[in-house]
Amino acid sequence: MTTTTAKGLKNIVAADSSVSHVDGQSGQLIYRGYHIDELAERSTFEETGYLLLNGELPTDSQLKDFSDRLKQVRTVPEEVLALLKSLPADAHPMSMLRTGVSLLGNLNPAEDKTGQEAMMDDSLKLTAQIGTLLAAIKRIKDGDDPIAPDQTLSHAANCLYMMNGEKPSADAEKAMDLVLILHAEHGLNASTFAARVIAATLTDMYSSITGAIGALKGPLHGGANTAVLETLKEVDTVENVAPWVEKVSANKGKFMGFGHAVYQTQDPRAKHLKELSRRLSIETGEPKWYDMSIKMEELVTAKINKNCNVDFYSASLQYYMGIPGYMFTCVFAASRVLGWCAHVIEQLSDNKIIRPKANYVGYQERPYVAMSDRK
Fold first, then answer.
1. How far apart are CA 152 and CA 140, in angstroms?
2. Both ends of the chain: CA-CA distance in Å?
């Protein structure tokens, strides 16, 4: 019997979902019915988080309660910080994050509760505490001590404060908030699908999110914006952009941060990061990274007829916020945890274990060969 397969499950519909809609043809991204443009321009990470987890925009009192609950569970147990400090100095930041989240599960007495209320509590804790882990990992990698959360700050501002040791400017806070909103959800990408597959076995939320972090660590999923920053540092000046583009093109190399596996037109998230990168380039007095990005976007788009994606301006923007390139994928995880949790909750609301078939292409049945007869 011949079975039709799609490599990588491309274009295979694997689940019904009301969390988000990604339309590659029109370049549209919808969270729970709301266009990403409106959320980027009018919402906050906390409000978007409530929307993704609960399905509706919050009232004023609901948003205050949600934000307060996030603040209340930001602190990470000392055992987790001690473990992170004990890891090898060259440990990958995403491996550190994966280990930290796994230990958080072990320390949660309600880890194995899978009811709706317990899952929502876990989602709040993970969203808040992955932000704290993100900052702690950055500080540890830099040889500094982690900084305790500031309960007076928003989620975005607190992440930057814990990473950099000082309260961010209004534009830097807005930039971080925007990065978190734009990366929070994107359909059945590899890490989200991994989370749903794990959740479908009726395991705990922490196991699902630990697995999702493992999937995001892979360079074919997370890490493109890190590669963009490395490129900007390699090119170094605006004057070097044009010869660099010609060199990469002549060698049939890849332009990181351009094109997208889903979007056939423009990535709807990219333009929002571009403007904040411009503003922070002025604030920091380092226009080089933004100017190089502008020139690179112009020349590469003309050369390959592909628009830049969300990763492109995310690189210069995060760098302006004081976030080193090696931490970019952890920032991605601190945002995408909302989408992961929303999908886990949705999976469990009408669960069936995910067990696809494989199209067997190996040997047909054959006789066992005795050891003496093997050649």
1. 24
2. 32
> Which residues, including other chains, have CB under 8 Å from residue 220's CB and lie 6 or more apart?
190
Q: Catalytic: 311?
A: yes
Q: Does 357 map to a domain?
A: no
* pLDDT tens digit sequence for 179-236: 999 999 999 999 999 999 999 999 999 999 999 999 999 988 888 889 999 999 999 9
Q: Among the options 260, 267, 272, 343, which is catalytic?
A: 260
Alpha-helical runs (H) found in the chain:
36-42, 45-54, 60-72, 78-86, 93-107, 116-141, 155-164, 170-182, 190-199, 205-217, 224-235, 241-250, 270-284, 288-304, 310-320, 328-349
Tokens of 290: 């933004």
Q: Which residue has the tokens 């995403």?
A: 94
CATH number for the domain including 159? 1.10.580.10
Tell whether 30 and 167 lie within a shared domain.
yes
Domain count across the chain: 2
Place of tokens 């660099």: 244
235 and 254, same domain (yes or no): yes
Q: Are residues 163 and 290 in the same domain?
A: no
Both 94 and 171 in a single domain? yes
Q: How far is CA 188 from the centre of its chain?
A: 13
The whole-angstrom separation of Cα 85 and Cα 89 is 8
What pTM value is reported for the model? 0.93
Full domain range(s) for residue 304: 224-320
Q: Is the pLDDT of residue 3 over 60?
A: no
Whether 28 is in a domain gets the answer yes
- Tell me how far apart the alpha carbons of residues 375 and 241 are, in angstroms, rounded to a whole number: 59
Question: Which one of 186, 204, 311, 343 is the catalytic residue?
Answer: 311
Radius of gyration of the chain from its Cα atoms, rounded to whole angstroms: 22
Q: Locate 310 and state its tokens.
A: 């969300």
**182 and 273 together in one domain:** no
- Whether 260 sits among the annotated catalytic residues: the reply is yes
Judge if 254 and 185 occupy the same domain: no
Q: What angle do CA 71, 75, 78 make, to 5 degrees?
A: 175
For the residues 245-268, what does the mean pLDDT come to? Answer: 85
In degrees rounded to 5, what are phi and psi of residue 259? 75, 165
Residues 331 and 302 in one domain: no
CB 330 within 8 Å of CB 294: no
Whether residue 293 is found in the same domain as residue 171: no
